Amino acid sequence: xxxxxxxxxxxxxxxxxxxxxxxxxxxxxxxxxxxxxxxxxxxxxxxxxxxxxxxxxxxxxxxxxxxxxxxxxxxxxxxxxxxxxxxxxxxxx
Length: 93
Fold this sequence. Notes:
By secondary structure, the protein is an all-alpha fold. Helix content is 90%, strand content 0%. Helix 1 packs antiparallel against helix 2 (18-35). The mean pLDDT is 90.
């Protein structure tokens, strides 16, 4: 709050009427309390973001493991089909 008094004093010292200087100081105070975040708020938000990143990382890891299994089964199926095809071609020829 001390910086608001300094702002008020600075405005008055450059011949801004006291009521206007007070209005500017109050507007700035209102904006600071409504729009700016405190360090504790930022720390809290940072902790939430870290938790979300960890949860997302775990989900991605599970999805990658699942896709690896699916790809292995598909590749195995293609190789098996290839062997069957080669065996059939060998029997025909």
